Known about the structure:
The chain is an alpha/beta fold. It has five domains: about 1-235 and about 375-405, Rossmann fold (3-Layer(aba) Sandwich); about 240-360, Pre-protein croslinking domain of SecA, CATH 3.90.1440; about 415-600, Rossmann fold; about 630-820, Orthogonal Bundle (Helical scaffold and wing domains of SecA), CATH 1.10.3060; about 830-865, no CATH class. It has 31 helices and 23 strands. The strands form five sheets. It has a nine-stranded mixed sheet with strand order 5-4-3-6-2-7-15-1-16.
Amino acid sequence: MNNLIKKIFPDNNEKFLNDNSHLLTKINEEESKLASLSDKELSEYSHKLSSSNNSHTDGKLIIKSFSLVRETSKRLLSMRHFDVQILGGLALNKGNIAEMKTGEGKTLVATLPSYLNAISNNKVHIVTVNDYLAKRDAMWMGKIFNFLGLSVGYLQNQSSYKLTTDQNNNLIPLASERKEIYECDIVYGTNSEFGFDYLRDNMIYKESQKVQQTLDFAIVDEVDNILIDEARTPLIISGSSNQQSNDYLSFANLASRLILNSDFEIEEKSKSVYLTEKGITKVESTLKLSNLYDTENVKSLHFLENSLKAKAIFEKNKDYVVNDNKVILVDEFTGRLMPGRRYSDGLHQAIEAKEKVAIQSESITHAAITLQNYFRMYTKLSGMTGTATTEAEELLKIYGIDVISIPTNKLNVRKDFTDFVFKTEKSKYKAVIKDVKNTHASGRPILIGTTSIEKSEHISKLLKNVKIPHQVLNAKNHEKEALIIAEAGKINAITVATNMAGRGTDIILGGSDVSENDIWQNKHDEIINLQGLYVIGTERHEARRIDNQLRGRSGRQGDPGSTRFYVSLEDELMTRFGGERIKNFMEWAGLEDDIPIENKMITKTIENAQVKIESYNFDIRKHLVQFDDVTNTQRDIIYKLRTDLIKKDNIEKIIKSLSEQTAQKFISDIHIDDDKSITSLFDFINQEFTSKFGITVLSSNDTELEKMKSDELEELIFDKLINAYDENKNSFSNEAEYLNIISSFSIRIIDYYWINHLTSIENLRQGIGLQSYGQKDPLMAFKKESLTLFEDLIENIQFGIIKNVIHAKTTDNKQNQSINLKSNLISTKTPSQNNTKKLKRNDPCPCGCGLKIKKCPNGQLILNS
Length: 865
C-alpha cells in the first residue's frame, strides 16, 4: 500500500528528480557540443545567450546556460560539475533549498543558477556565513563569471570590492563604493552586510546615497546557519542613549551579593531569572524600597534582572570573550567572534559591568529588521546546506521554500558509531583522551568537536598534559581557521574545533596541497588505508543538524571515515532534558563512572531531547517573526513614504494626500452638535489649527459654516490647507529649492517619530508577556496596542509634515516662521464671481463612474480642470 501511495503521491525529492531528469540528459548532450568551441567562441556564445532576453524559467535557456557554465568551469578551474551538482543547481533555480552533503561542492553549484538568473536581468546575491568565504568564493568562482562577461563584486565589513583584470588578464579585487558593487551582476557577502545595507538605505536623505538595488534572487550558503540559527537575532542599527554607567556598576555590585538558589533562581530553558521571597526582601532592604514591583521601580527591576542574567546565565568564554577591554559576543553555533554585535536592552552593559571593562552607552534603535523579513523580500530565495531536513518544516512555514535532498556523487561509506554515555564529565573526558591517544598512534587524522571555547580549551589542556600535539580552532583564532581545517586531514593531524568553525572549507585526506599530485596521492591513499578521518564529538549539541554537520566532516566524496559522540549526564543538554532517567538506570545497574553505556535506546532518548529543544527554539523564532510581522507592515508603510519623499517625483500628490488625511482626522476628532454655536465652533477650529499648524483656516467670509455637514467641513479645511501650501510654494522663485526643503524637512520628521515609535514598540514587546496572566493572547494584545501606537505615529507625521510644508522658507528669507496666513487664504469663489459651479472632492464625479470625485482615479485631473 505504501509503495502504491508513493507512486500516486511521490515525495518532493522523488518528484523533483523525475521532473528534472530530462533536463539533466539534455544538459549533458549540450555539453558535448560546446566542447569543440574555442575559448573565444565560448565567450561569444555567452554574449549571445545574455542578449536573448529569455526568462530563467525557459527550459532551452536553462539547458544552454548550465552546459556553458559547466564547460567554462572545466576549462578554467579543472572542475567539471557532477550530475548531482547540476541537479543541485536546478533545485536552486526553482527557489528551493538544496541539501548537499559536506564535500559535494556547493560553492561550484551556485555558479549555475547565478549565471542563468544574471543573464535574465536579475541581480544575484550569494550570501555566505563570513567575510572570508565571501572573498574566497568571489575570487574563486569569479573567474567563471568574468570569462562569461558578467561583473562580480563582494562585500566586506567596512569595505567592498569589484573584480577586474590586470594587464596579464589575472582577476584582482578593486576597492569600490558599495553603490557600484550592487550594480554588479553577482554580489557575494554576508547576511548582515546585505541586511544592514538595506536598513541604511532607508536612513538616507538623497536618492543618490542609496546603494542596494532590487532584491531579485538570493542564494544563501549554509542556509540553516543563516535562516535558522542567526534568525533569532534581528539586525539593529542603533544610537547612544544618555544612560549613566554608574547605574550598571551599582546593580552589578548588588547582583554579586545575591546567592543562586537562595536569593534568586534561574530557568535554564528560557534563560530567565526570578527573585525568591528572601531575595526580594534583601533587594528592597538594600535599595530602601517599600515594594520592588511598584511601577515607579520598573527601571530598577530591569537593571537588576539584567545584572543577575549577566552573573548567572551568560558565561565568559562560552557566550562571550573579553578582548582589548571589550565584551565580544560568540556565535553559539559556529564558535566565531561577532565583533560589533551587542546584546540589546541593557544586557550588554550589565555584562560589561560584571567584567569591569569600559561600559558603552545603552543604545536606542534607529532601524531594525529580522533576517526572516529581510530575506522574504527577495523575489526568489534559495539556499544550500549539508543539513536542512530536520528544519524543513520551519523553512517551509516561514520562508515558503522546500528542501530537496540531492543524492551524493559517490556512496557514503562512513561509519557512525553509537554514543558512549558516561555518568560524569570527568570520566567522559578521560575516555576521550584515551581514544585519541590510541587512534593517534596509528597516524590516523582526528577531528575533535566541542560546543564552546571553554570546552575546546579544556580538551587542549588535557591533550597537552599527555604531550599529544594538536591544533585548536575556535573563536579566538578564527582568522586561521580555513588554513587549519584544510590541513586537518593530514597524517597525525589532531584538530580541536569549536562546533562548526571552519565551515565552507573541506577537510581533504592527505592535505589541501594537491599541486604535486603523486606525493599527495600517496598521502591520500595512506590515510584511506587508516580508514580516513575520525571525528569525535565531545558533547551533543542542542540541534541535531549541528551534530550531523560535525559528522559530515568525515567520509566526503566516498572516502572512508567514522564518528562517535561521547556524552555525560552532566552535559548541558542532559541536565536540561532527559538525563535523570538515564542516570537512574545507570545507578540501578550499578555501573561505574568509567563504564559507558552504548545503547541505541539511550541514543534515541538523547535525540528526543534534541527534538524538544529544536521545537522550543522554533517557537522562539516563530514568536519573533509573528511579532515582527506586525512591525514589518508598519515599516513598509513608513519606508515607502520616506522613499517617495526622497525621490521628489510626487511630493505634491503626497502633500495633498496627507492634507486630506489631516482634514479627515481633524473633523473626526471634533464633536459637532446642535447646541454648539457657530461662533464657538468657528473659534474652536481656528484655535486647534493655530496650535497644531500655526495658521487659522477659517476667515470671516466662511459664513455658511453652520449649514455644513462634516464631509463639507472636511472639504473646506482640505481646501484651506492646499491653498496655504500653494501660497507658500508660490513664494519660492526656485521650485527645486522648495522641493528640496520640503523633502528634507519631511524625512527628518518621519525619522524623529519613527525612532521614538521603535522604542515604544520595543517597550510594548518587552511588557506584553504580562497579558498572558490576564488570560489574553499576548500576540493579539500586541497587534491591538501597536496599531494604536502606529495611528499616533501617522498622525504626528501628518501634522508635522503639513505644518512644515506651510511654513517652509527659502534659505535667504529671514521672516518670522510663525506668521499668520489668515489674510492670505484664498476663499471659495461664490456664484456671483463664477457662473460655473465649483466642483468639490465630495461631489459625485461627472465622469459617470458612480464614485465621489476624491475616490475617482481621474478625480484630481477633473478638479484641476
